[in-house]
């Protein structure tokens, strides 16, 4: 099993949700995060538009999903295909998940996801 951590602009959450549904991955979690990367934040108007402020951190959405090993390459290809060329960018991290347990049924491994 693998854990995919996908960091994207808020407006791209529906795209990721569609891709995950189309590949029958099961559930996902998402939450708001802020961070700093290669893409710099644009200046915003403050004080009734009389001043400009450039925030240090940009708001993003982080999606976490656990998938079976045979789904990983397909998901990576679909996500890269959908996001390539997007100026706001995003990141995808893949890590191993050695153990998964469904607490209500006590199923373990891939049957728990």
What features would you highlight for this structure?
single chain; 113 residues; alpha+beta; 4-stranded antiparallel sheet; two-stranded antiparallel ribbon; elongated
Work out the helicity level. Answer: 10-25%
Shape estimate: elongated
What is the H/E order? Answer: EHEEEEHE
Low-pLDDT parts are: none
- Side by side, the strands of the main sheet go 2-5-1-6
Give the N-to-C terminal Cα separation. 9 Å
- How many helices in DSSP terms? 2
Q: Write down the overall mean pLDDT.
A: 89
Which structural class is indicated by helix and strand composition?
alpha+beta
Mind describing the biggest β-sheet? 4 strands, antiparallel
The radius of gyration computed from the alpha-carbon positions, rounded to a whole number of angstroms, is: 17 Å
Overall number of strands: 6
The share of residues in extended strands comes to 25-35%
Describe the structure.
With 113 residues, the chain is of the alpha+beta class. 19% of the residues lie in helices and 32% in strands. The protein has 2 helices and 6 strands, in the order E-H-E-E-E-E-H-E. The protein has helices at residues 13-22, 72-83; strands spanning 2-8, 29-35, 44-46, 51-53, 58-67, 91-96. The chain has a 4-stranded antiparallel beta sheet, with no helix packed on it. Strands 3-4 form a two-stranded antiparallel sheet. The relative contact order is 0.31.
What's the short version?
This protein is of the alpha+beta class. It contains two helices and six strands.
Strand and helix layout:
Layout: E1 2-8, H1 13-22, E2 29-35, E3 44-46, E4 51-53, E5 58-67, H2 72-83, E6 91-96
Antiparallel strand pairs: 1-5, 1-6, 2-5, 3-4
Helix pairs in contact: 1-2
């Amino acid at each position: 099993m693998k854990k995919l951590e996908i960091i994207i602009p808020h407006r791209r959450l529906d795209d990721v949700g569609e891709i995950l549904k189309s590949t029958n991955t099961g559930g996902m979690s998402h939450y708001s995060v802020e961070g700093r990367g290669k893409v710099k934040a644009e200046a915003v108007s403050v004080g009734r538009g009389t001043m400009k402020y450039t925030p240090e951190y940009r708001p993003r959405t982080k999606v976490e999903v656990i998938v079976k090993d045979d789904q990983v390459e397909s998901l990576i290809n679909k996500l890269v295909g959908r996001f390539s060329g997007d100026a706001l960018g995003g990141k995808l991290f893949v890590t191993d998940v050695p153990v998964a347990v469904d607490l209500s049924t006590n199923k373990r491994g891939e049957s728990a996801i």
